[in-house]
Design brief:
Chain lengths: ~300, ~300, ~300, ~300
């Protein structure tokens, strides 16, 4: 399915990510981890382009490292580099790691409903070459955006989902997704995902919601915010867990509002923040800049 | 007590507020209100310097207007202007109004505890002539800031308040405040005010708190925010009502934080936002830019 | 041409702008202007929905007022209201004024070149009903965006313009525009307009440019900004005058950048600010919130 | 002179910087640098707390690395670590490096004139323990702030400087500074430093200026900004070079303003940004987060 996907047009003559890979490592901190990792890379004559490291406690906390390196003939060398890292990191230090060539974009499915602002912003940025992703498909419980999505050259699947029992819809989702995507983005998808679906789909899911939570739970949050006279409206992008809207936060932002704004205007300003925040979260996830740890994230910008 | 108060030094040769007054009007909207108000001012040959008006619903909602006008010989003319407004507005239209010469600063008492960032920022801005207020006194349940406050030429009263029964302390507060202040600022005052105190003191009270509410209730909000991995910390200034931390919001703001910030750094950044937000709320209240309505505010900036 | 234009879909069941008009008045300040204006509106039983007034100097400066009022049967009454305002304002006080029914959107032509981010953002917001405008046409010196523009139901005209002599292209522009538009938006139109064109077209022109000016004049501003190590990139929307990029500013904004951002990433972040700033400038102009005065603007938000 | 300096009060029971050092390395990028550095640290059983690395071009650009590490008994071990780094980095790779124990705050002289907002903000943050610096002295060409500075327990020196010939004043400055400070902060010091002074003093100098440059050069920038109708005012902190106001930028920020703000209010808002931006620049410099390279900076936040 992704074979016909338009690759993002390169913005620069020479693709800077050619022959570059990103390595994420995390686990229990101990002395010598940075040296061990860079020794493996050095042995392969890989050049470190950027390296961000964080320990949440210098005395026995958790260790996080993101390394981008370049190596001529990366594709051929990657299996051996991975083998050496596995020996050093998994077996030597009991660390988790993830190694990926940057030239291979992550494959994503976008779930949407009627509101199209987040969906279109992602498709549009993708077409401009701003997002290193491969949009495998858009799935929606409404048919409204089908023509628009397909005009971007992206497959659109309409999977209706009404009533409390989502099992039929979720079964269809799993069929479409299996093996085809590396992560999922809920671009204002107004359906709750079951815990079983989250577990079975097995890839990270990014969601966007307004930032009033837990202040204005339930329907009509902007009307409640108007009544409360808030001076800021915002949005939060987070990974989906079984605790609805409570998963690890990736990004947040706000905009100013005032008493003269109607509920409709609050919603519009909120929509602007939502699409900006979601696009940053998707970009950072696609570039492997986000590491989950407990119920929070490390974001190496 | 306020006789010895240092007046804010004028920043410009000619005080722009001399011979200026501010008029606040609010009530049920109906046709002809702006015309009626400006007719009274026109009759007195007062020149309107700025006028902000807002109706929350063009069909029978609430009406809010802030007018600043200048008039040569304001002091002598004010009683007659007020009389004419009363006849027109209170009696003719059943509106509430407030009229005040801008050259007379509002008198304020600042309540503080150990944390001094909000207190010092207010005193410092006041000394620089940025706040059109007269700081009548600082009241604290700790003696730590006495010397610093007095170095600004401002009376400091230490009123200890421990244990659940605040009645003795609050009685002392009322004695100090009675007739001396036009509003109160809680500059990180870490004691809860009783409903009885709020009612008996009879002047508006402005409070500042971190903006996580209602997310991280209780002790250690920044530690909880750290654990949750928030990407923004903020502050909210609001009027105090009996519903703790739930009164009408005057101003809010946020700053970005990231995973590398410790709880101490979150607190410092939070303190920076707190003092900025509180100083804006105090300025706007002092300039009669804030109108309370239900549980929200109209802020004419 | 505009007959087939899709009207923005109403977002709310009852259009709040039905039977509403906006009145802009400006000129030399003197006592009694607000009263005179509201007396005319009161005589017609028009209800003032919002009123913003500003004097840039209480002693003989300039006067600016924006009034939104509602009146049942507005369309029928407008000519008589306008007549009475003319008698009062133009003849009585020598003021300039502009009166317009809010239900009639302003007609705009958008000029674009190859970069499509500002163009598409405007078309998209328009389709969502966020901009009270009627997009009469898009004119471009490149044909690239023709299909996309027409997919929004908007006429696209390709007017090539190369070489230093723009007179043929500008003549064609004038033919297309004459009588059809109320203002023009340059959405990253990379051609300089002649002073003669600006004068002959006779409607306001809004432009957007990066905010480094006058720092990084000429080609490659982002490369220069990268070399200088700026920590913010921004955008400015302004009215076009003969002094290139020096006309009255309508809106400005910035985003943070850092040393790790490449020139391409600076451009992307710059593009995000550009489209946000331009869309706010267009909205405010379309709602008659912007008054030009000398080389600056009064913006009533 | 610095012996009597109040050390910043620790905010947390256990000082997190005890036994921690910061290492800055920069020079020409080549394969193996990170490995070489971490090998030296690993040999000494130092634990890397945080590591930020940046290459401005993966193919033969410049290399920048900031490493914070902890080591039990740091003080005793530091000379040997430095020796090993010198052998590895200076001699092996021709890199520049800087190694410093974090528990030893940098010593700073603050230069000020009449405006006290930046000066007081630094002294106040320092007293609160927010800035890991040792304020060795304040030097001013005006005596106005002497008492206030000394109330913070900090020496104040009044060095008048009038007329075009600064050589006498600068000679006195050099006498006061020689051997006593690690960097200088110009906290709105309204005198131009000679190129000879900058060279002879031999330590980094941080300056703060409004961000309109080069737009509104010379006297009265805020009056010019008001006339131009800018919608943002800002501030830039930078290292001082012989090119006045053109040195490497450390930090920038802005605040929104509008047409209703007077020149005085623009100045106040500008002052708020100035003190915020300067305090961040001083903090980052004090924590060795800023690396100068050509005419720009790498800031590892």
């Amino acid at each position: 399915m992704t074979l016909t996907q338009n690759a993002p047009a390169p913005l620069t003559p020479a693709d800077p990510t050619a022959d570059q890979a990103v390595l994420i490592v995390h686990g229990r901190d101990r002395t010598g981890l940075v040296a061990a990792i860079s020794a493996v890379l050095g042995k392969h004559e890989a050049n470190i382009v950027s390296l961000d490291q964080h320990s949440d406690n210098p005395h026995g906390g958790a260790f996080f490292q993101r390394t981008v390196f370049s190596k001529a003939g990366l594709e051929a060398a990657l299996p051996q580099i991975e083998h050496d890292l596995r020996v050093q990191l998994s077996e030597g230090f009991d660390l988790e790691y993830n190694l990926r060539a940057l030239s291979v974009p992550k494959r994503v499915a976008i779930f949407a409903s009627k509101a199209d602002h987040c969906l279109l912003d992602l498709l549009w940025r993708h077409r401009r070459g701003e997002l290193p992703i491969n949009v495998a498909m858009v799935i929606s419980n409404h048919a409204d955006t089908a023509a628009e999505v397909r005009s971007f050259g992206i497959p659109f699947f309409h999977v209706p989902s009404s009533g409390p029992d989502k099992s039929a819809a979720e079964a269809q989702h799993l069929t479409l997704l299996a093996g085809n995507v590396d992560f999922i983005v809920l671009a204002r998808y107004m359906q709750i995902l079951s815990g079983e679906f989250i577990e079975r789909v097995g890839v990270p899911i990014i969601n966007i919601h307004h930032s009033f939570l837990p202040a204005f739970i339930g329907a009509g949050p902007y009307a409640k915010a108007k009544q409360r006279g808030v001076k800021l409206v915002g949005a939060t992008a987070h990974y989906v867990t079984e605790d609805l809207d409570e998963g690890p936060i990736i990004e947040q932002d706000v905009v100013r509002v005032n008493h003269a704004h109607t509920v409709t205007e609050l919603q519009r300003r909120g929509a602007d923040v939502e699409r900006a925040v979601l696009s940053r979260a998707v970009l950072w996830h696609a570039e492997d800049r986000v590491i989950r740890h407990g119920n929070h994230t490390i974001v190496f910008q």
